[in-house]
# Entry
Amino acid sequence: MTDVLSRWREGLSRTGKAAFGRVASLLGATEITAETWDELEALLIQADLGIDTTSSIIDSLKSITRERGLLRSDELRSALKAELRSRLDDPPVLDFPAHPTIILLVGVNGSGKTTSAAKLGGLFLAQGRTVLFGAADTFRAAAVDQLQVWADRLNIPVVAGESGSDPGAVAFNAVQSAVSRGVDVLLIDTAGRLQTRFNLMEELRKVHRVVGKTMPDAPHAVWLVLDATTGQNALEQARKFHQAVGVTGIILAKLDTSARGGMAFAVQRELGIPILFAGLGEKPEDLTPFNPDAFIDGILQG
# Structure
């Protein structure tokens, strides 16, 4: 467990310093005053927890302070950690219900989606599963090339189409190939969507339908890759993608940058979608299963 915590602490060092680090500094050995609550509220909002989640946490902490007779702000630290932890679900044990299991990866351009697809492929390989990539992000030649580079490095086959070709057709071919090859997991990298562009989201719905027609009950999972640096905008993205294709899990990418990290709590509160993985660096092994305790320890370090 120590190794896990140190890995998360290292990965989240910049995140901790960005906003939550100032929370840790605030909770020093000083008397709890009205200013303490005002400053803590402001810092939590700046850390992207959102107004509703922040208000709920502050109210809970004030109740705990009255009940326990707390006087110094450093006594709030453990209570804050407990409050934050209570707002994050333990990720479910990953289920691979079919052979192949079809996983659709969705998200906006620049979120880290294609890189996350590649890292997931490496993770599943390390677990002894066979993997196939479907390069259905056909509108960006760079995305297909990027996935191919990763695939060559990992020795994972790729089903791709011509640049600009129909992503639904690529998804169809990928599912058929996955079935014929008998692989364990098919990861389909879809085209990045701006959640505000109706026609692009319709295209994503089409890919989802095509996959479902090609194989019963597919896709078996829809994972949304969120750039942790985008703050509350990530919550709006999650809402739109969930409405369009029924997101079943979230991957928090780029947590190792100066991401504020609080949007994880907002997404959990608003949508109740489990956070499955977190990106803590550039290397394949830096995509790691989400650990709520290590996450909170990492963001509150300092």
Remarks:
- The two ends are 20 Å apart (CA to CA).
- The CA atoms of residues 48 and 97 lie 35 Å apart.
- The beta strands are 101-106, 131-136, 158-160, 185-190, 221-227, 249-253, 275-279, 287-289.
- The mean pLDDT is 87.
